[in-house]
Amino acid sequence: MNTKNLFILSFIAILTTYYFILGIDKSIQLIKDEYLSILALIVILLSLLFFKLKLKGHQTINFIQNNQFSLKSTILFFLVFQVVDYYYENGFIGMISQWFLYWIMGLIAITLMETINCYKNYKYLKNKP
């Protein structure tokens, strides 16, 4: 499955779960609480956009080899964090309140890797004779 589609589907699932279990007010508050992570994501996205515009019309090289984790290991990793969150965040509500943070951190990781790759391509093209 495409990573982009997976992030979109997971975002819809998170919002739907928040809406039905927590209600709209609590859901909005949980999202507002992650404003620093959202701001970091916006800054990284702006950097990525800058480098994409600079590289427009040039062939890019993939400097960062993506390690593809299997869906099975990703789900297992997620479930381990769910058990830890259930214990340390005082139950089910505390556990699901962390889902949006995980989603934002996943986007930051993917976007940051893409930005680093674009930066390396930019530097390579700039130093190319």
From TrEMBL:
Task: Please provide the record's keywords in A-Z order.
Answer: Membrane, Transmembrane, Transmembrane helix
| Source taxon at top rank | Bacteria
Indicate yes or no for the key word Membrane: yes
TM annotation in the entry: 7-24, 36-53, 69-88, 100-119
- Mind telling me what this protein is named? Uncharacterized protein
Q: Which organism is it from?
A: Arcobacter arenosus
